Amino acid sequence: MHAASREGDDSDFTVPLTPTGGPGADVGTFRFDLPYGEALRLRRAEHDVWDLTLRVPGDGPPVPIGRITRDLADRKKTDVYPPLFLDHPDRGTTRVRPFFTVDNALALSARDSDAAGT
Questions:
Q1: Is 8 helix (H, G, I), strand (E, B) or coil?
Q2: Would you tell me which of 1, 22, 71, 101 could form a disulfide with 15, CB atoms 3.0–4.6 Å apart?
Q3: pTM for the complete prediction?
Q4: In the prediction, which pLDDT does 57 show?
Q5: In contact, 44 and 51? CB cutoff 8 Å
Q6: Quick check: helix, strand or coil at residue 90?
Q7: Nearest to 93 by CA among 85, 102, 84, 101
Q8: 86 Cβ partners below 8 Å, 6+ apart?
């Protein structure tokens, strides 16, 4: 899995995938652990965002990781992940959470947080 920073390539990072498919399972199923610590280490702005994609072999474009099932067109407001508040040595408390973009692609947000935790 590749996390492409909207702040520039030098803040990108990759994460290994673990296949989860077995006999009779869907082809291409996988899992990964999203390393919040790595995102925290690479923070550069008040609000950093990484778009999560799969890199395909060869010269093909990256494939967004997203929600492709169910009947709702906009998952951004219904599939909400709780934030985790982490300390950053320079930026202070950081609110980190995955979210769905308006295109139903998965992304990671790391945002400066005020004292109230927002």
A1: coil
A2: 1
A3: 0.82
A4: 74
A5: no
A6: coil
A7: 85
A8: 36, 37, 40, 93, 94, 96
What sign does the CA torsion over 59, 61, 66, 69 have? negative
Cα–chain center distance at 106: 6
CA-based end-to-end distance of the chain: 28
Token pair belonging to 19? 């296949």
Q: What is the pLDDT along the chain (118 residues), one digit of tens a residue?
A: 999 999 999 999 999 988 887 666 555 678 889 999 999 999 999 999 999 998 877 778 888 887 655 555 666 666 678 899 999 999 999 999 999 888 888 999 999 997 545 5
